[in-house]
Specification:
The protein has a single domain, classed as Nucleoside Triphosphate Pyrophosphohydrolase (Alpha-Beta Complex). The protein has 3 helices and 7 strands, in the order ββββαβββαα. The strands form 2 sheets. It has a 4-stranded mixed sheet, sandwiched between helices. It has a 3-stranded antiparallel sheet with strand order 3-2-7.
Length: 153
């Protein structure tokens, strides 16, 4: 059996107005998330991020299009998914990226992974996520991508 590596990416896709793309998990209806996926052997993390974005959304992004946040999250792998990992592996290290796209960007979900998608304002998207790391990353978007400078001080 080939086991998944306990190293993954989280890619938050958003517009300049900070509307965030969320995907509904096929195996868990009602569970919403950003793009996620495990690193494959010999693959750089940025390659993992580009591959997962393409596979899950149909968006073809290059390494230059993505922003590497240079931060990681470590979390316990849900018991129901541990069989995918080598015996004894209980935690995953997730590397955070983001991708800013134009409003109305075409999205084509992978039907074996996701039931659908939706665009939500930042705070609503964060509240809809089942994953704490996904929620916390989305909540940091306004700090990393301010919409515009304030008009009045």
């Amino acid at each position: 059996m080939i086991y998944k590596q306990p190293v993954s990416v989280l890619v938050v896709i958003h517009t300049p107005a900070l509307e965030v793309l969320l995907l509904e998990r096929a195996k868990h209806p009602g569970f919403w998330q950003s793009v996620t996926g495990s690193q494959e052997d010999g693959e750089a993390l940025i390659e993992t991020a580009c591959r997962e974005v393409a596979e899950e959304t149909g968006i073809l992004a290059s390494a230059d299009d993505l922003t590497d946040w240079q931060c990681t999250n470590r979390y316990e792998i849900f018991a129901e998914w541990r069989h995918r990992y080598a015996p004894g592996v209980t935690h995953n290290t997730e590397h955070v990226f983001s991708l800013c796209v134009t409003p109305g960007c075409a999205v084509h979900v992978a039907p074996d992974e996701h039931l659908g998608y939706r665009w939500l304002p930042c705070k609503e998207a964060a509240a809809a996520c089942f994953s704490w790391s996904n929620r916390d990353t989305i909540l940091l978007l306004p700090q990393r991508y301010p919409l515009h400078p304030p008009r009045y001080q």
